[in-house]
Amino acid sequence: MTTSGKKRVARISVDRRKESGFSVIELLLVVAIMVILTAIAVTNLTANKRLYSPDEEAAQAISFFREAYQRALSQRQTMRVRIDLERNLILLMDEGLLPGGDEVEVIRGVISHRVSIERPSINGVALNPPAAPYNYTTANFNSNIWSVRFRADGSAVDQIGDPLSATLFFVPSNLDENSIGLIRAVTVYGPTGTVRLWKLDKDTKEFIAGGE
Fold first, then answer.
1. Cα gap 199→112, rounded to integer Å
2. Backbone region of residue 3 per phi and psi (left: phi > 0; alpha: psi in -120 to 50; beta: other values)
3. Full 3-state SS string of 8-39
4. Other C-beta atoms within 10 Å of 175: how many?
């Protein structure tokens, strides 16, 4: 092969290497695009988490109530669900050792800071609970704590043993016109310990049954 031929082959090889690789600018552009897409994905996930929080917290409360109910029936002893807004906790306590001994914590859950568990107001008017016969009194938090006790006969009672029927609201902490439809309610019927989930209709501002 002549000298000119060798030079031509070498030049072609160099050109091919240039075509098959990436420049520094191209790599920086790819990295920048990936960062932007990641930021968008994280933002969307955060927004979706906020949207689903009332549903998740209502579902968690229902799960604790039903677990307490089932344990009370099967173990023939009183189980208590305690919601502590000061520490953002929901607790299932076994009162089987009382009054002679200490109660035992069975399960605990964390309440999201994105959700407020209090009766909300819309346009300055307090939201009504579900319609009769489910219009139970709003759960009364004393020093940021509310409790319900499930007894061996399946009933739900307060601290002194009286039947306790109550409504708990689960509301987006940054409630506005766009998030009104995310409000949820959970009702507990004292005589039978029945628990129900309710969803707020954004247009009528009334609760409809949200399933079990």
1. 19
2. alpha
3. HHHHHHHHHHHHHCCCHHHHHHHHHHHHHHHH
4. 16
Q: How far apart are CA 108 and CA 67, in angstroms?
A: 12
Instruction: Give, in degrees to the nearest 5, the angle at Cα 91 between 147 and 83.
Output: 40
Q: Are 92 and 64 in contact (CB under 8 A)?
A: yes
Q: What is the pLDDT of residue 58?
A: 96
The CATH code belonging to domain 52-209 is: 3.55.40.10
Measure Cα distances from 97 to 94, 104, 160 in Å.
8, 8, 17
**Is the whole-model pTM more than 0.85?**
no
Whole-angstrom Cα distance, residue 139 to residue 190?
12
Distance CA 93, CA 71 (A): 11
- pLDDT one-digit tens code per residue, 6-24: 445 445 454 554 455 567 7
Q: CA-to-CA distance for 204 and 85, rounded, in angstroms?
A: 30
Whole-angstrom Cα distance, residue 59 to residue 162? 26
d(CA 43, CA 84): 30
Q: Where are the domains of the chain?
A: 52-209
Tokens of 22: 């990436």
Alpha-carbon torsion (59, 64, 68, 70), positive or negative: positive
Residue 166 predicted with pLDDT over 80:
yes
